[in-house]
Amino acid sequence: MRRMRVWTETRVVLALPTLAATERLAAALAPLIGPGDAILLEGVLGAGKTAFARALLRTACADAALEVPSPSFTLVQTYAAPGVTLHHYDLWRLDGPSALAELGWEEARRDAVLVEWPDRLGMLRPADALTVHFALAGETGRLVVLSGWETRLRGVKEFERNQ
Ligand SMILES: Nc1ncnc2c1ncn2[C@@H]1O[C@H](COP(=O)(O)OP(=O)(O)O)[C@@H](O)[C@H]1O
Ligand SMILES: [Mg+2]
To answer: Is the pTM of this model over 0.90?
Structure first.
């Protein structure tokens, strides 16, 4: 009889009481990212998606003062970090998934992508992505739910213990 593969999804729920905590989480995740990876950032406007991406990109580029504008108008900004090139997308204004091709999506997937408003990806949503869902919890508090990347999230569990 063929062995059935049981799908177990890891979910890590973290409380991020301040922006600094969000930045520390992003910094902890940055070294885990390599070519082909996708990080999907979910949550309402102002939830902290761009703040998280900014901290992650600053760590990846080893430049604490790196300019990281929200890509809400350009839709994508690219950063050549030493280990991997990262493409930061904000798809809020995307005109349908077919418009993604014009934004170099296929090529970008060979590098790493950070995507705000990933629901806009439709069928192109990567199945093997790490999803980071932000929910508001008070003025500076956020709750994040990380899903995907099962074994790779071990380092993040360390982060939780050290909080
Ligand atoms: N714990 C926190 N995590 C992330 N952002 C926070 C936090 N507390 C306060 N903020 C603030 O919330 C805002 C989040 O904005 P932004 O990252 O642009 O949101 P989004 O990209 O999800 O629309 C920023 O002004 C940031 O300083
Ligand atoms: Mg944003």
So the answer is: yes
